[in-house]
Design brief:
Blueprint: E1 2-6, H1 15-32, H2 36-46, H3 50-54, H4 69-75, H5 83-104, H6 106-127, H7 139-152, E2 157-164, E3 167-174, H8 175-189, H9 199-216
Antiparallel strand pairs: 1-2, 2-3
Helix pairs in contact: 1-5, 5-6, 5-7, 6-7, 6-9, 7-8, 7-9, 8-9
């Protein structure tokens, strides 16, 4: 199931969501201008390398990062490994991010996004503390948005491209099923050997979003009638 759009109107213009998408696209375009060796250097200098984060005082760090290791958790959120990686992440961010920004407010949404990404990276690092492969991509932070959406809008219909063998249809499915199916895929793939996807980051981000949205969502304004 590939989500295409949701039936969830917004009241605030999602300029933060659009801004995050724009920055990710700009960074990817910049990546395309780099020779292969320079691109690899960029990924290692700004990607989040678990070993560097779990051994900050080690003398055998394989690659010196351009930032303090803890800050690479945030810089890594804006680097992608290919067009499909970028496009899929930005699709999910566009569909679900505007509603979370609308619910939290612009400033809270920025903090929510970054903190979700931080916990997503932390979950991945805990699963592979000695890994020397850089983690890149916005999917951990976006997973936090998906977790928040599940809590706030579980019954909202999502137009989804459904593909099964030769059957291809666009159907409307409640968000709880779309996001539940997405999370199930992450759980089933977590712990698999090899591959290039940080499944535990997705799981950690999703769980973080579920809990963080309750902290970041503004309390409802209470209306009083004077007598």
């Amino acid at each position: 199931m590939i989500p295409l759009k949701d039936d969830n109107p917004i009241e605030r213009f999602p300029f933060i969501t659009l801004g995050i998408i724009a920055v990710n696209v700009w960074v990817y375009i910049y990546q395309l201008t780099l020779p292969a060796l320079h691109l690899e250097a960029l990924i290692f200098r700004y990607g989040a390398i678990p070993y560097n984060l779990t051994h900050p005082l080690a003398k055998d760090i394989l690659y010196l990062t351009a930032l303090p290791p803890i800050l690479t958790i945030f810089s890594s959120m804006f680097i992608h490994g290919g067009f499909i990686h970028l496009a899929s992440n930005m699709l999910y961010l566009w569909i679900f991010g505007d509603n979370i920004e609308n619910a939290l407010g612009h400033f809270r949404f920025v903090l929510f996004y970054l903190i979700s990404g931080f916990f997503a990276s932390l979950f991945h690092i805990l699963s592979a503390p000695n890994a020397t492969i850089p983690m890149i991509g916005a999917s951990g932070a976006i997973a936090g948005i998906l977790g928040a959406y599940l809590i706030l809008f579980p019954r909202t219909n999502v137009s989804t491209l459904f593909i099964f063998i030769i059957i291809i249809r666009i159907i409307k499915v409640p968000a709880v099923l779309v996001l539940g199916f997405w999370f199930l895929i992450q759980l089933l793939n977590a712990g698999t050997e090899g591959g290039s996807v940080a499944w535990y980051a997705h799981i950690g981000g999703f769980i973080a979003g579920i809990f963080l949205v309750k902290i970041f969502k503004p309390a409802p304004v209470r209306k009083y009638r004077l007598t």
